[in-house]
# Entry
Amino acid sequence: MKNKFKLLYNPFDQIAGWKAFIIGIIIILLTVVIGNLNCAYYPGALDAKLAPDVPLSIAIQVQGIGLVSLVLIFYLAALIFAKGTRFQDILGTVTLSRFPYLFISLLGFLVDEDKLRAMNNAMMEGRIGDITSSVMDNVGMIVASLLMLPFIIWFIALLYNAFRVSTGLKGAKCVFLFIGAVIVAEVVSIVGISALL
Amino acid sequence: MLPSKCPSCNSQLKVKLLVCENCHTEVSGRYNLPVLLLLTQEEQGFIMNFIKCSGSLKEMAALMNLSYPTVRNLLNDIIEKIKTYEEQI
# Structure
């Protein structure tokens, strides 16, 4: 029972490398496709947003940019500060660590897409009063946004374990390098997505 | 299992007497335990399996049902421990 629970926050003691990558990429594709059906969208290394009318091709590309930026920055950190890190271990563990986002995609079913679209239009046109009423009117969106938080926290915990196991780093050095790498990856992903869009 | 730490004060034990069961010769002195014997039973088992797998971490991972980086990290931990013991001797 304890082992099964451990698989939820650190499956990487048992699985890494290409096997983890294949499982992870299938889950990511499912996440993007399901998310695309109900307004969930992942524009960044860590980001999860509710946005209507995002073309599937764009949703896949931004998810890809987020994933690639995390993998490359983590691998760069490993090359500089750790030894013996294999690229496929970083790739596999980081990819698999994104599986909590599948649950976030499912949360999108709580959101009223028409109301979300109306809120977005009000934001773009600067109608502050309409934004407020749209938000208060869209209870599903508020609930989904709140419920996203534990899944994002779960993802960050998994991402940390992915980094720690793949690089072999420990203690404070591992923590600070992880935080630095995540921040850099987020910035790189935002720049990449801006260039795309 | 040969103990390596004193059960009373946890200091490192040394070998005082060795006996030949064939001719009953006794060799008495004060000898340091080999570094490998200072490791835990699990760590010694890991090293034995590592040798039996011809040093292949991939085979070790399959044998132990662990991921490759986890096995590599275990090996790195043992290497660091051995280096520490070698410095102490």
Remarks:
- The interface with chain A takes residues 65-70, 72-73, 76 of chain B (CB under 8 Å).
- Residues 4 and 12 of chain B are 6 Å apart (CA to CA).
- The helical segments of chain B are 41-52, 57-64, 68-88.
